[in-house]
Amino acid sequence: MSPAIDSRRLTARQSAEYFLNIVRLLDRAVDRDLVTTLTFLSIARANMRQFTRDPDRAMRYAAMDAVPPDSERVPVTVYAIAKELGIPYETVRRHAAKLRKEDLCEAVPGGLIIPNRAFFSAAMLEAVAAHWALTQDLVNSAGGYATPVTDPPPGDVSRQVVRLGVDYFLDVLALIGRTLEVDALGALVMRAVSFVNVEQHAYAPSAYPDVPVGPGDSEREPVSVYAVAKTLSLPYETTRRHVRRLMEMGLLEKSGAGVIVPARVSARPQVLMGIGELMARTETYLSRLAELGVRPVPAAVEA
User: Fold this and answer.
1) Entry's InterPro entries (predicted)?
2) Strands 253-255 and 111-113, bridge-based pairing
3) Domain count, the chain
4) 145 class by beta-carbon count within 10 Å (0-12 exposed, 13-18 middle, 19+ buried)
5) pLDDT band at 208 (very low <50, low <70, confident <90, very high)
6) Does a structural domain hold residue 298?
7) In a domain, 293, yes or no
8) pLDDT, tens digit, for every residue of 130-161?
């Protein structure tokens, strides 16, 4: 009898592609540079945190056309956003000022909010629909959550699914940052490089099921700085600086025409602990999606 496959490791690998697809989606929706986009997201998440924690309030504003009024948003300071992202205060202040100038952010007593009107733009409405499709793909590939959920779906919950997706995205970004002791951009670069390195194994259930560090260095596909910059919609020079810094820290190394996250980094105790926490966060995310009715959709059977 073949040994059982630890599906959590497979799900963790699959979630990396979902994570990077969200980066691309957000880049199109906010249509700004990545640091501005991260600032926008972090402000929006802080404004709405009470809605993701309170099921009754969450469901009141769960549908596509149900956006809470500005009076119900909790303001957040630039300092709090800078601390969350691990990005210098002055950098975040500059990007918040850019958002204010472009009418995507407002200063109110107590800090900053993303106003109601920002969520009704054509780009944002398209992003909500696109996010639902990406999330459904993740649920389908991961097989949903292991515990069957029998309650009937609650209806249109697309806005709440976006809020949960933003929470998951920013929480994973913060987890990578804490684990590797890098800022948000460094964490994004590491996520992009590590995914390309092992992409050929991401959807293979039998690929390294019992080895959390994954394949050896010779089996990792190198990725160029240009490809990482394109994946993350970052300027090439910005990406190159971060790659060089990560190489100096021993987190990346040169391989062929590109770079890899070497297996020795994946084998670090703190990284193995981080992988375990990522698995747990992904499982919790899938569980919360299941509660909202986002469950695997059976593949169509051809006649």
Assistant:
1) WH_DNA-bd_sf
2) unpaired
3) 1
4) buried
5) low
6) no
7) no
8) 999 999 988 887 765 555 555 666 788 988 99
